[in-house]
Design brief:
mainly alpha, 22 helices, about 75% helix
Length: about 575
Amino acid sequence: MIWGGIVRVTGSGEGCPDWPLCHGQFLPSLNMATRIEWLHRFLAIAGGLTLASLVVWTLARYRRQPVLVPLALLAGCLYILQAVLGGVVVLFDLPPSWVTVHLANAEILLAVLTVMAVVVRWPSVVAPGLRPAAAAWLGLSAAAATFLLIVSGAYVRGTGATTACPTWPLCDGVAFPTDPLQLVHMLHRYLTAIVAVLIVLAVVTAWRDEHRHPAQRPLAGLVFGLFVLQVAVGAANPLSGFSEVPLAAHPAVASLLWCALVALVAAQWRPLFPEGIATARDVIALTKPTIMSLLLLTALGAMFLAEHGVPPVDLLVSVLVGGACASGGASALNHYFDRDIDEVMRRTRRRPLPSHRVGTRVAVVLGIVLNVLAFVILWLGADLLAALLAVSGTVFYIGVYTLWLKRTTTHNIVIGGAAGAIPPLVGWAAVTGSLDLPAWLLFAIVFFWTPAHFWALALLIRDDYERASVPMLPVVSGDRATAWAILQYAVMLTALTVLLFVIRAAGSIYLVSAIVLGAAFVWYAARLVRATDARRRALARSAYLFSMLYLALLFVAIMLDSAVRL
């Protein structure tokens, strides 16, 4: 990350104009710009190898620790994403928005590794029964604000506003300049002032609250020292005429400060893990993150298809954040209205509401607030049609499926599947402002996928649905009839996916992927039909899991096909 700052300062980002090789070679002829950029990639490869070793070592030695294994896997996924983002930055001529995303993901990866370091260094907790104190919340607020400050610094560099204000602390003696670049630069300084207040408060409260963790005082002192250094380096930039040393040191010290803050927050929350983190986990569980991820992927695929390539970052972020709020809000409301059923079913009785770890008011308020946020974010960041579609998905999911169809008819998931098919329409509308034929085909793909997916789950937990008096197809018509229905929908789904190629909305990469994935889905469904009653439920699990993988890979193929065709 430090060397990445040197790449930016020296303007060496295009020293290797291609990716993953450099001038078509692994070891190209090295002029100065190429040397700097090539070393950055070499360090990225070395970091990837050490990170892979860390993941393997964690799985081998710490596989029974509930915190380290997920953190290690998350770090591995973030590194893969970082490599992909690095390729995008190079292949698309270093657009400032993607450079900012690249930096933000790197900082998040660094934070995950820092938390791992704290957990390994202090494996035992000091006071597991303590509730979150002011120090913990202030530390978390300061860390979040610092992250925004780092991202805003990347935005300042991306817009060319770094050298817009040659004096400090004011800009040419003016607090609020009228020049757009100077204003961008000054807003970064004002954000620094806000972060300074939060960091000072966090450091003071952590220093006083040292009994909660032995590392709080040393880390608080480190945070304060690094922040003072960062302010000095920031001031040195204009005072030195923006020479290369302070320019390169500014993002490097910022990353060190970010690590120290994350370590402090991890130390503050580590003693609270059994109670404090569990509460946060329960609130997150209300949003059903797995379902949310799959829905967001379908919206993302629609955006790539509508854009015929990579959509603008600001629009992409708006759809992903707004879509996540809409999906999470709908899921939270679903938790509330289905709490009586969830208490009866073994699969769901440990959810936050039926286990009484979270109050019903929390679910309702969370659901409403997230949907309001979704509408506002999508309206401002995309357009009104996308915002209305997202909210209509929630209304249909709760009003039509959850409250009416789910408890009254075997066609509940057939008709109710329309709610889960809304995200592709949202993504398409955000890019084009309309709903064209390819968008409706994407809607139909998810719509026809949903019954086959949920009926496989229903086969697996039929006793649960029977106990809760939910008329799912296996409960009413039996397992064999359900298996035949899954096969019929899998065949129709496969034929439907090909239409996207027929109308020339997608290319050959998508076509091959759709045929291969469809054939595999049909094969899984056919196994259910041929299986005996005793064997069918065991096979239902693999069919259910593959159905999720099928939809994810299909929309990844859409994204890849759209990017390559560009």
